[in-house]
Write a structure and sequence with these properties.
The protein has four helices and two strands. The chain is mainly α and 101 residues long.
């Protein structure tokens, strides 16, 4: 198991959440959301079932920047929680192998 303990202060997290709320109003986000595809599981969903996810979570030091934002279905976003991409890879590989059976 990997151990990455980078954390952010409450003040930093609140500022990044404000940035995320502004980013949700941009055409860039609307275009990403318009694809309807979850970044993690690759399945297609109606826009109402998709969320904005920070690939590197805010609490783990992630920032609200276009390169760290992904469209995620609610199920994947809830399961991912505060995991980093390297910690999340195991879940994704199990999900994909289950779907291939």
């Amino acid at each position: 198991m990997y151990s990455f303990n980078i954390t952010s202060t409450d003040k930093e997290i609140q500022e990044e959440k404000r940035k995320a709320r502004r980013l949700r109003k941009t055409n860039w986000w609307k275009n990403k959301l318009g694809t309807g595809v979850c970044y993690y599981c690759g399945k297609k969903f109606p826009q109402s079932e998709l969320t904005m996810d920070h690939i590197i979570p805010l609490i783990r030091g992630g920032k609200t920047k276009k390169g760290n934002i992904a469209v995620a279905c609610k199920e994947c976003n809830n399961k991912k929680k505060y995991l980093l991409p390297i910690e999340w890879d195991d879940y994704l590989s199990r999900l994909k192998s289950r779907d291939c059976k």
